[in-house]
Amino acid sequence: MERRTVLASPTATASVQRCGARTFGTGRVQGVSSLPRRVEERWKPGKFCKEHSQGEYLMGRSLGDPIQRLMGLMFKAHPWHGVSIGERAPDVVTAYIEIVPTDTVKYEVDKDSGFLKVDRPQRFSNYCPVYYGLVPQTYCGDRVAGLFSKRAKRKDMVGDGDPLDICVLTEKTIPHSDILLTAIPIGGFSLADGGEADDKIIAVMKDDAAYGDFTDISDCPITLIDRLQHYFLTYKQAPGAVGHKVEITSVYKRDEALKVIRASHADYRAKFPELESLWPTQLT
Prior knowledge:
284 residues, alpha+beta, Inorganic Pyrophosphatase, 2 domains, five-stranded mixed barrel, two-stranded antiparallel ribbon, 7 helices, 12 strands, 23% strand, globular, disordered N terminus
């Protein structure tokens, strides 16, 4: 194995720093200087064949950057930043699942580490009726808040500062979270949480036998939509509580959902410009 030091680009340096390696004023990276020649050959720029999994390809998209190539092979990607939103987004997106219907604890991604952490135990009898998580490489900022304000005819709305939430419908039983799946957006909820825009994208799992043919939220049974709305309106509400800061101002269709996804990715680009090399080209 040939051992050598690699010069890091500013983007690669930022990626390495998040993974714990050290950089110095020259931009040289300490702690990831070993790059096997066979790995380098495997990841020649533009090379993508059957020996690469889709995950390897998406997580090492910047094929011209040796540091990012190495990171994609050696480390688990951060589900918010290191996983692609999807090469066919916004029509087809990647969803990272944080909660499944059998969970009695609310999990969410720790923004700093990327690990799935316990947010809080579910204190009451409600449970999430669908697979719930986030869309990678999205951020609810000014653009998402602007769309919300236009729909709801409200001023002074702000984004909640989190990745865009997604609910995925499927007939299959998935026993645990911390997984990726491919989802097709069909609509969404315009949800306000204490003055913050907190949109919920509704999607179906790609090729699902029961829901895979749905193309719009109007295809869903009304009882399913009612159940979802009830969950989001009550999951933070304690019995007997008077204040009710969560509200759903509207249910929107697929076209609006695609606009929200585009806006959230644009907000993400504005928030994290140092990750430009990982952005999908079709959403530029």
